[in-house]
Structures are given as C-alpha cells and as structure tokens.
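Running low. Invent one:
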Amino acid sequence: MKLFVYNYRDFDEAEYFTRYSAEYGVELGFCKEAPSFENAELAKGYDAITIITSKMDEPLLKRFKNLGVMMVSTRTVGYDHIDLKAAEALGLMVSNATYSPHCVADYTVMLMLICIRKMKRIMERAAINDFTLPGMQGKELRNFTVGIIGTGKIGRTVLKDLSGFGCKLYAYDAFETDEVRQFAEYLPLEELYRRCDMLSLHLPLSAETRHLVNAEAIGRMKPGVILINTARGALVDSAALIDGLESGRIGAAGLDVIEHEFGLYYYDRKADVLDNRELSILRGFPNVVVTPHMAFYTDQAIDDMVRHSILSCVAREKGENDPWKIV
C-alpha cells in the first residue's frame, strides 16, 4: 500500500518510518508540514495519510477524499482534532495510534511532585542565587488523597505508580474495572471532588467531557486542591481555572495541555505575540507549571505511534481487523 506522512519529523520519526515501512511493505511519501489545502495534492495517488494533532475539518477531509485518499490515521491517542461525523459521511476510515501508557503516567507523577515540592519557585530562586528557605516548604506525596478521573490505560498506570507512594487513592470512570479496584476505590465524581487533595485528569475530549472542570466543579473541590492535566486542554475551563487559582481554591496546577493550543505547540514561536491570553496568565503564577504537551514524548512512544499507524493502515488495506479503528 501507499501511505503519505504529514507532520513528518526527520529528527525522531525517520528511523521508525524507515524500519516499519520496509518490514510491512509500505511505500511512503513525506511532508514536514501539517495537512492543508495547499499541500493536499501531494497525497494524490496514496491510499492513506498519517498525521498528528492537525485540524481535519470537513472541507479538508473532503479534499483528501476527492484525491483518492481512503483513510486518515492519526499518530496520537486523541482524535478530537478530526471531524469524525464528516469522515464517516464521506466514507473515510479513521484510526488512532496507541502507545505505552508509561510515558504519560511517569510525566503525571513528575508534575505531581513538582507541584507539591514547589519546584518552580525553587528553581527560579536558585537561578538568581537565592537559596533561602521561607516559602519553599513542600509536602510528601504519601500524605495526599489523590483522585484519578478516567481509568483507561494511562489512568490505571498512574494508579499503579501512585500505590507505591502510599497515597490514599480514589477513581472515577463511567466504566469501572476490577483491575483499578486493586489500587483505588471508585467514587461518584462529586464525592471524588469533596474528598481529594489532588486530582489528575485522564479522559478523552468529547462533547460530554469538554469543560468537565468548570467553575461549578471547582467550587465543589477541597480548598487548595492540586489539579494535574496531561490529557486534553479543553477538559478544563481556563477562565475558571484562573479564577480558582486567584481565589486560592486551587492550590497549584501542573498542566501539560491547555485550551486553544493548536498552532502553538511544536512550533518555534519565540518571536511571535501569542494569541492565547490564558497561557500567558497561567505561566505567570508561581504555583502553576505549564509544559508544551510533552508527556507522551519518549523513544518508546514514538516507536509505538509510527508502528501502530502503519499497521492500522495495512490492516484496513488487507481487510483485516484493525484494533485502532475509530471510524
């Protein structure tokens, strides 16, 4: 089969595309840019395209369909950047690409520790040779009650990791599993808010979960709660989060994702005026750590993302079962 690669990164993905295209007999084409009307013609004659978190709305999907593309595979777990209803109506197949949950789980625990040990302030002070102690006293993770919202592969892995710290663990998910019950007690969301000192989000973004953490939800949380988000930015209402931080209702936040991050992350924007006011405000808080959607970024994850994207396309082309099928 023929697969066209958009958002191609030669500094990290190249070795895996070379290896797996040869292994699975796939002919590749490459473009370093995100898919657009201007470069869509490059995919003419290819069976499928593979992308990362690039907006794929109905007009763009229709453009690729008219060029003969039959499938869109995103090299990410999340797929909220693709208009699935439009893809289905056009007869386009869509898949995602899973990767090791340990990358995001490790990063989640790191953000938790950074928040409770006040590492942002410690490092900022140390950078100007201020080695004083006042205001730097942290807390120990074992003394926290932690709630995990979303117990898919990543949420379950975070729970396993946290069990070694001795935290009291609770969880929420619409679909409960016995595996989670080995480490945590499931609670209704409102009860989770009431009991937990720290909350970590591990849900996909959908119409139902958008702004799950809003002003009303924050008002029901324990005063001084610590919020961690390594899932999707729009799970949290940024304006409500800022209000919560300013009022002290939220004691700290560790954010690897934010609302409206498309067009920012993975680009060099250091000379630009950014049109994301919430990002600027959040970065200014001494008790907020914001990182640019890096939780996934390990060697194992890149290997998995490329391999699974290729395998998904090959499976569909052969009419075989595709475990990464979305549409």
In short: The two ends are 20 Å apart (CA to CA). The domain at 102-290 is CATH 3.40.50.720 (Rossmann fold). The longest strand covers residues 250-255. Residues 242 and 282 are 7 Å apart (CA to CA).
